[in-house]
Each structure stands twice: as C-alpha cells, then as structure tokens.
Amino acid sequence: MELNGTIMKMVSNDDSIVHYQLPINKELFNISDYINKQITINFNSEINCIKCGIKIKKTFAQGFCFPCFQNSPETSECILKPELCQAQNGIARDLEWAKQHCLKNHYVYLSLTSGIKVGVTRATQIPTRWIDQGAVKAIKFSKTPNRYTAGLIEVFLKQFISDRTAWQRMLKNDIDISTDLKNKKIELSTHLPKELKQYYIQENVIYKINYPVKIYPTKVKSVSLDKFPEISGVLTGIKGQYLFIDNEKVFNIRKHQGYKVSIKIKT
Q1: Burial of 58 (0-12, 13-18, 19+ CB in 10 A)
Q2: What pLDDT is recorded for position 267?
Q3: 221, exposed or middle or buried, with CB in 10 Å at 0-12, 13-18, 19+?
Q4: CB under 8 Å to 69, separation ≥6 — which residues?
Q5: Predicted confidence (pLDDT) per residue in 146-196, tens digit
Q6: Which end of the chain is more exposed for a tag (fewer CB within 10 A), N or C?
C-alpha cells in the first residue's frame, strides 16, 4: 500500500482504545489499523503552508508560513497564553474566528501526562485535547464563558502545579498511574480567590484514555524528516501525535504538518 500527499495532525476517536486517522491530501487514513506493520515515510522535499498553501522552506508554529504565523488567528498569542486573549473586549486578529474559538465555553482541567498538569481547552475539544497531549487521565476543574477567564485560572494554578509535559516521560509512559486527580482538584480549589471560585465545578468524573501501544519504549529517539528524509521500521504504537517506530524512534506528526510525503505500508 502506498499513500502520497500532504499530511496534517492525526484525528482521534476515544473508543476503549484511541483510534487514529491520518489526514493525507484531505482524506483520512486509518493508521491505527496498521500497527505491527512495516512502514516507510519518505519526504518529497516539498512543504506547503497549512493556512494559505504556498510552498515554503520551513514551517512556523507547526505548519504555517511566516506571514500566516504573524497574522492568522490560529497563531494568536492567546493560543499558547489564554490569559492574553482580548476577544472578550472585541479585539482579535479575526473577531469572527474568535467568536467561535475564544468566546465559547472553556474548561480548565487537570491531566496526567508525565505528571499532573493544568491546561485550558474549548469544551468542544474534549477529549481531543487530552489525547493530543498523551494524557492517560483527566478531570475538569473549572468551566468559563471564554478563553481569557480560563487563562486567569490556569495562571493562578501554575503557582501550585505545572502546565508542562515532559514529553519523553509521556512517551515512555513513565507515569504514576495511582495519582489521585480528584484529591488534587479538591486541594487546588481551596487556593482559588473569590472572583475565580464561581467557575469551579463539582463534577469529578475521571476520564481514562488508553492508547494503541502494547509495549512502551525504555528509551525514545525523536526523528525528523528534515534530518532523515526516509524513516522506516515497524509501527509499534501511537500516542499523542507521535508514531512509535521500532519501539524506539518517535515521529511527531503534528510537527510535520504541511510536509508532502509518500508512505508505504507492507500489509
């Protein structure tokens, strides 16, 4: 089997085990169905901006050309720092886009990736956001009417808990699964100032996520098409936006959005 085209970040469905589809040339390929098969990814020396489509030599913010990186709403500073969002004041790179992405219900959550972390996501991105970051457990902490307010809560909680994931530990599944997210949520809630307590939610459902990985690697080596235009081996698992190849090499699909490739799989 051979596929040719431009790749985008994987789409996932939260079944008992996460099922992944790889968008290639705007079609969805069920890549989860080919775990334990030989895969070869060849870079065709062409990259296109995922926003405007022009050919580029390098990408910014995982797939954009530099002008789109500077001007597109998808790369606004509030994407990484929600507390900087100004859409609630009528200020945005694209206000119509912001109405659909920033001025909607957001959740602050706690997730277990490499350790417990705090994060922010739109209500419509649950559980996709957790899957993309490789979380094995998650719990909702607060519900807010916009991105800015969620960002304020996240910033406050960062005094007590990280907002980062140690990606190598996440990929090795080097995690204390017994970690109690509910107790941590209750503990953190006691620190909230009065003006933010109103957004705290009592729901304590623990979301559990299982990935199509039978054996996790003890070491991981990140491989990129910029350094290795051909990457080959057995597809041994998928977690987050990473393909595991030969149970050691990890290939970040999201980092390669806009890359034109050919993918061969021995079936």
Answers
A1: exposed
A2: 82
A3: exposed
A4: 60, 61, 75
A5: 999 999 999 999 999 999 999 999 999 999 988 999 999 999 999 999 999
A6: C
pLDDT class of 253 with cuts at 50, 70, 90: very high
Tell me, yes or no, if the pTM score tops 0.85.
yes
Residue among 104, 96, 135, 148 nearest 122 (CA): 104
46-57: per-residue pLDDT in tens? 999 999 999 999
- What are the structural domain ranges in the chain? 2-58+213-265, 76-208
